[in-house]
Amino acid sequence: FLSIQATAQRKEANLSEANVPAYTLPDPLRTKDGKVITTAQQWTQIQRPYIYHLFEEHVYGRFPRKALSMTYKVNRVDPYALDSTATCKQITLYFTKSDTLAQLHLLLYLPNKPKRRVPVFLGMNFYGNQSVINDPSIPITTGYTVKGPGIVDNRATEASRGAQASQWPIKDIISRGYGLATFFYGDVEADKPDGWQTGFRTRLQELLDIRPEEWSAMGVWAWALCRALDYLEMDKRVDPDQVLVMGHSRLGKAALWAGASDPRFAMVISNESGEGGAALSRRDYGENIELITRSFPHWFVADYKNYGSNPAALPVDQHMLLALIAPRPLYVASAEGDQWSDPKGEFLSARYAEPVYLLFGKRGLGTDTFPRPQQPTGEFIRYHIRTGKHDVTAYDWEQYLQFAGKHCDSRP
Ligand code: GTR
User: Fold this and answer.
1) Ligand 1 centre and the CA of 116: distance in Å?
2) Would the CB of 275 count as within 6 Å of ligand 1?
3) Which of 15, 248, 249 to mutate to test the pocket of ligand 1 (most atoms within 8 A of CB)?
């Protein structure tokens, strides 16, 4: 009877600013014994590992640190891609000899000029590599795909070719001297509650010495981003110190967790990642822990849903996830038409990560005022909200390219 009542009391999303209740955020600089962190060294040695571990325990699950002997095969190289401005490589990454089904298909575009190593944006895609550009040489993914253009009964069809091209302005990225690497997140784990059964969490559990329930879909997607980075570090045309991890929406959540988990990522970009990503959980606006864990139980470790009715009991909030990326450049972006992701909660989260950046002498947003649309703000933490819907647009990419231009040492 009690549990039936609890179900009936479940909260729906609040979308009215006037109805946001007061909340208090945990201070990223306060240690578990109540001391205050005052130096970058104390942060790196004491507080950062402590907070990172809290995210492992309560949100994304344990991040396996066991090294694998990854192998790869370059299946196709096209040096004349995009009107001969780029080289396109299709690469398969294998993680174990015994189960060759555990594989990632990486699609990599590198500018033909400049000839030297270049910075590369890395991001997962939602519908398969064939969806990011219309190129018949890219095999259509055979994996489970969520609903979308050109997807029929959770399978990608010919009609999905290039259907996401507007979210991946590859020509512009190349013309600015950057590379782009992407893979399909469904290669790693199908995005459904039982996806783990056929995904990497099951296939690699012995090798990585981790049981599927010890981590989450978000965890294994983030882990896969790190393996793609392992490959990129070996590619002679990639600047291994300038791999910039980017993600949209649920894949933005994974990009943030990858950036927090792996300091090799030189920059992190969260495009409308929302709840469980950049947005504060304690700020009750838009999607909340209750709703996200109800719809997507597999995204997080099981413990996370216990905070659905009481986010204040969670020892972390998402500004602390952003703080884990310090002192590396971080971009958080929202859209006005995407209230579900709580733009203001994303802005405030970026704002409250700033004290950690300041320990390193790096300025963050530098303002408490929520900006108007198309008015990016901030130095090492940068934020914008734009008009329009939940999406990745040319405007968003233009900001990321400018931000990268400002912070990449080997910029063109
Ligand atoms: C929604 C989910 C969000 C966001 C989004 C997306 O259904 O509630 O957290 O991740 O999907 O990935 O597009």
Assistant:
1) 38
2) yes
3) 249
pLDDT value of position 4? 39
- How many whole angstroms separate alpha carbon 292 and alpha carbon 282? 14
Active site residue: 249, 270, 273, 349, which one?
Answer: 249
Distance (Å, rounded) from C-alpha 204 to C-alpha 196?
11
Give the per-residue pLDDT at 369.
Answer: 98
d(CA 316, CA 245): 23
CA distance 411 to 37: 34
Tokens 């914008």 locate to 384
Ligand 1 atom with the shortest distance to the CA of 251? 12
Before 169, cis peptide (omega within 30)?
no
Radius of gyration from C-alpha coordinates of the chain: 20
Helix H or strand E segment including 7: helix 2-8
Burial of 26 by CB count in 10 Å (0-12 exposed, 13-18 middle, 19+ buried)?
middle
249 catalytic per annotation: yes
Q: Read out DSSP for 353-373?
A: HHHHHHHTT------SSPPPT
pLDDT tens across 324-360, in order? 999 999 999 999 999 999 999 999 999 999 999 999 9
Strands 330-335 and 267-271: parallel
* Distance between CA atoms of residues 257 and 88, nearest Å: 28
Atom of ligand 1 at shortest distance to CA of 287?
8
**Residue 224 Cβ < 6 Å to ligand 1:** no
pLDDT tens for each residue of 168-184: 999 999 999 999 999 99
Task: Map residue 222 onto helix, strand or coil.
Answer: helix
Those residues with Cβ within 8 angstroms of residue 231's Cβ, 6 or more apart along the chain or in another chain: 70, 72, 91, 93, 106
